[in-house]
Amino acid sequence: MGVDHAESQVKQSNITELVSLVDDVGYTSEAELDTRKLVSQVNRKKKKSGGFQSMGLSHLIYKGIIKKGYKVPTPIQRKCIPLIMDDKDVVAMARTGSGKTAAFLIPLFEKLQTRQSTIGARGLLLAPTRELALQTMKFFKELGRFTTLKAACILGGDKMDDQFAALHENPDVIVATPGRLMHVLVEMELRLSCVQYVVFDEADRLFELGFHEHLHEILKRLPEDRQTLLFSATLPKQLIEFAKAGLNDPTLVRLDVDSKLSDQLKLAFLHCRFEDKLPVLLHLLRNVFSETEQTVVFVPTKHHVEYIKEVLLQFEIVCSYVYSSLDQTARIINLSKFRNKTTMILLVTDVAARGLDIPMLDNVVNYSFPSKSKLFVHRVGRVARAGRTGTAYSIVCPDELPYVIDLHLFLGRPLSFVNPNENYQAWDSLYGSVAQVVIDEERSTLASIAKNSELQALQKVSENAYKQYYKSRPAAASESIKRTKEILISTKIGIHPIYGDVIDSSESARLELLSNVKKYKPTSTIFEIGATTKSTGAAVMKKTRKRNIKFVDKYKEKIKTLKDDVTLHNNISKGSQHSEMDDEDKVTEEELKDVFARVIKPSSTGFMEKKKFKKRRQNFRDEQFFIGYTPKDHHTESGLSVASGQVSFAKEASNVSLDLMGDEDVQLRKQRAQKKVWDRKRKKFVNAQDVGPAKKKIKTESGRVISATYKKNIYAEWKKKTKFDERDGQGEVDGKEDWRGGRCRNKRFQKKAGGFQNKSSSDNYENGGKFGRPGRGKSANHGGKQGKVRSELKRPEQILKARKQTKQKQKLKQKRRPRNTRKR
Q1: 398 is in which domain, residue-wise?
Q2: Is residue 485, in this structure, part of any structural domain at all?
Q3: 328 & 472 share domain
Q4: 146 φ, ψ (degrees, to nearest 5)
Q5: What is the DSSP string of 699-712?
Q6: pLDDT for 309
Q7: Which residues does the annotated region (Disordered) include (predicted)?
Q8: Structural contact between residues 404 and 431, judged by C-beta atoms closer than 8 angstroms
Q9: Which pLDDT score, from 0 to 100, does residue 360 have?
Q10: Does one domain contain both 138 and 277?
Q11: Cβ–Cβ under 8 Å, residues 230 and 156
């Protein structure tokens, strides 16, 4: 009884709240009451548990969400759905598995609501691959099961005849891949002028697969007042330019997961030669990581993925692998194995890993160090989530050390090298070398499989691919390159503490001896050993030594100074690490200035000294009368401003822009070969593709490059074969508008109970009377509902009726025969 009483009190409070809202809105009668708006206002007011109830969704859509099993929206849904329902263009950075499909389907259902007599699709969903489009279509049917909305799937590999028929059934939403959709649009001369809602799913992958021209051509056919949504894992510059051109004042939605490194993440930098990277990786996978830890290994190209996969299989290490050109089915199978922990290692490239959302990772290994600091954060941001600990291991060769220095400048952390004479309890963010004993041991195991001809071929291909990768990757900062040379000359990098259990005292002594032998330099040359007084070689070397003695002494002095600086550098690094722990990972400007003095300061101070004596330029402004275009306290006020929503999309997007390097030869060549030509109008060098009215080319599903307006008259042949013109009236042949035309509500065809009625065929329709029988004109009968092609097969009832009619005719003929014979 108490529960029932409480429930009745809650219901009574809701009713009174609704009544008060009615009074506020000013409805004059109950018939005008829109309950959905009132419920949404109540829900927005109450914010029930932060769920879908607070979003003001209609009953049928909310029912479909609950039936699907959703209870609480994901972070991307919570941020995107209110913005989309306010009719704003949105660019959302979301990974696969973050719930982005529901984030754009729920507002789609809310906007379209139900089927209408409008002729033409009102929603367009574009996906990069056939599998993703089918997944979106399946999700559309499950989530919108209680709505009457209808969708058509236009995919490559399916029959175009079926797709023509599906479009003539007047779907509300089109789910398509850009290649086949562009082909259908050209063949049918569709203009998509009724589309209100456009979604580009995984937009970065759309551009990666070469759909740039397709997307621009599709955008031209869409109305300007459409709402455009763009979902992407990363934001390359090309995608930002597309968003600026195709979207109207877009809002950038970004979950700040990878904006900074987690406090629970440990970093380890392992220094070795380029040839020793594979032995170091093998040691990490076999000896350092446990069997229960999941690890992602980032490699430069797809050829490295294939080579390392085969090497690991030789040592009975099962792994999953993903790269950009991998078949979608194989991609799904490999990822499901890794997610289900059937395999504990995943080999990926940057392009393939973009958008993957893999929870509960333990380790990340950078087999090739990323050339951009943002990319490093993007990689290692996958571990140490939700309070879990994780480690990022980076295998660094000497030519990648400048990128490590750039990274530490970007993160604001000191770069600490391992000192051979000290013992380290904690090794977070330390840069140390790999023990030679480990490399030698793993090299001997690799030598046992070196005679495998398949592995030799894969190794050669991967080496050639790395040459292309090396040429196309962007260079590091010049100051970082200069600092790297000084470090490699003057610093003795100790063995990393993770190899502490491998190194004992005898091994340390051996390594010290080998290091001294390597550094040994004789005082005399080969020409001076055993030379006599008459030896011309000794005399020449004596003169050369006398001439170059100044430069040699200067170089030795420079090396000595550098070594002193490095000692000071190591001391400051330790102090800064200690203060970092005390100040909660905050590094002051003074510490950064001391740590990276050679990077930040100019090479010589002479310029600064000269600048002091420069004549100060006289200011022409009279402060008493001059009025600036901005207030004097403009920068102060903008710094204190809390209205972050007023920041432009271009500024926000530039902060998160990230261009990834390709993992195939074709993609690497594109990045390398940026041909510049002289533009006479702009008076500067520009990209070749930006000059002149170049003919736009697109790549077909078979890989053939054709013109964007190429047409084969497939649609005309289909109409002729199915006799569609006889059933559905005249098309665009006469230049008149039909269901493909520019207007959504075409006056030539009007919706009737029996299909589409020609306006001129019935006077009753024109006069506003009841719907009568259609006229006997050619275009009166459209053969079924909404232009659907009528089947020529008869139903059993029709066959039975035809038989009865023929029998009746035969009986009438038999009755008439005797009368005719009598007259004769």
Answers
A1: 265-477+491-517
A2: no
A3: yes
A4: -95, 0
A5: E-TTS-EEETT---
A6: 93
A7: 724-824
A8: yes
A9: 77
A10: no
A11: no
Amino acid at 627: I
Residues 6+ apart with CB under 8 A from 822: none
Which of 102, 122, 87, 106 has the alpha carbon at shortest distance from 250?
Answer: 87
- Identify the pLDDT of residue 640: 43
The encoded tokens of residue 13 equal: 């409070």
Q: Which H or E element spans position 438? A: helix 436-447
DSSP state of 676: E
What are phi and psi for residue 392, nearest 5 degrees?
-115, 115
In a domain, 482, yes or no: no
Say if CB 376 and CB 366 are below 8 A apart.
yes
Of 591, 593, 595, give the one whose Cα is nearest residue 581. 591
DSSP string, 410-431: HHT---EEPPTTS--S--TTEE
What DSSP string runs through 266-320? EEEEEE--GGGHHHHHHHIIIIIS-TT--EEEE-SSHHHHHHHHHHHHHTT---E
Give a yes or no: residue 13 inside a domain. Answer: yes
Q: According to the model, what pLDDT value does residue 680 have? A: 77
CA distances in angstroms from 677 to 232, 673, 695, listed in the order given: 32, 13, 17
Residues 29 and 67 reside in one and the same domain:
no
Going by pLDDT thresholds of 50, 70 and 90, the confidence category of residue 393 is very high
Listing DSSP states for 590-658 in one string gives HHHHHHTHHHHS-S-SHHHHHHHTSPPPPP---TTT---SS-TTHHHHHHH---GGGS-HHHHHHHHB-
Q: Which contiguous run of DSSP H or E holds residue 757?
A: strand 755-758
* Final residue of a structural domain among 211, 232, 254: 254
Task: Count structural domains, the chain.
Answer: 3
Q: Do the domain assignments include residue 229?
A: yes
35 and 101: one domain?
no
The model carries a pTM of 0.59
What is the distance, to the nearest Å, from the Cα of residue 67 to the centroid of all Cα atoms in its chain?
30
Q: 511 by DSSP, 3-state: which?
A: helix
Contact 107, 368 (CB under 8 A): no
CATH of the domain at 244: 3.40.50.300
Domain shared by 74 and 212, yes or no: yes
Residue with tokens 């607070």: 54
Q: Are 280 and 311 part of one and the same domain?
A: yes
Shared domain for 202 and 236, answered yes or no, is yes
Conformation bin of residue 604: beta by default, left when phi > 0, alpha when psi is -120 to 50: beta
Render pLDDT for 554-588 as a digit per residue (tens, 0 to 9): 888 887 777 776 544 444 344 333 333 334 344 44
755-758 and 430-433 strand pairing: unpaired
The residue among 469, 500, 517 that closes a domain is: 517
Place of tokens 């000692």: 567
- Tokens representing 139 are 């999700």
CA distance 283 to 506: 21
Quote the CA–CA distance of 723 and 756 in Å, as a whole number: 17
Q: What's the pLDDT tens digit per position in 147-190? A: 989 999 998 878 888 999 999 888 999 999 998 898 898 888 88
